[in-house]
Amino acid sequence: MGGKKQRYYKQFNPSMIKAIFERDGGMCIYCGAPAMQIDHVIPAIDGGKPTRSNGVCCCRKCNAYKRNHPQDIEMLTKA
Fold first, then answer.
1. Distance between CA atoms of 53 and 2, rounded to whole angstroms?
2. Residue 3 to residue 17: CA distance in whole angstroms
3. Measured at the alpha carbon of residue 37, what is the angle toward residues 42 and 52, in degrees to the nearest 5?
4. pLDDT above 80 for 6
5. What is the 3-state secondary structure (H, E, C) of 26-44?
6. The whole model's pTM is what?
7. Cβ–Cβ under 8 Å, residues 77 and 62
C-alpha cells in the first residue's frame, strides 16, 4: 500500500448541504462569490467529518486554490 494516505472522502448528506447553504447565505466564505460547493474546513483526507461545523460554502475557484495551497488558506479568508 505504500506510504500514501487512502483517498476516502466522506460526503455531506443533502439535508446538511441545504443547512450549510442557508447558514452561509449561498456565498463563498472566502471571497464572497456565489458558492457552488461545500468545502471541508478540515479536509476529509485529514480526518475532517462531514458535519455542519466542518462544512462551509465555497466557490469552485477558492476550493481549487485551497486544495492545491492548503498552507495559504488564511489568504483566502475575507477581512
1. 32
2. 33
3. 50
4. no
5. CECCCCCCECCEEEECCCH
6. 0.74
7. no
Q: What are the grid coordinates assigned to 26, written together?
A: 449561498
CA distance 48 to 41: 7
Which residues have C-beta within 8 Å of that of residue 70, sequence separation ≥ 6?
Answer: 43
Element housing 73 (H / E):
helix 73-76
Residues 7-54 pLDDT 10s: 445 689 999 999 999 999 999 998 999 999 999 888 888 888 999 999
Q: Give me the amino acid identity at 52.
A: R
Q: Are 76 and 57 in contact (CB under 8 A)?
A: no
In sign, the C-alpha dihedral spanning 74, 76, 78, 79 is positive
CA angle 70, 75, 78 (to 5 degrees): 120
Query: Residue 25: which residues within 8 A CB-CB, separation 6 or more?
Result: 57
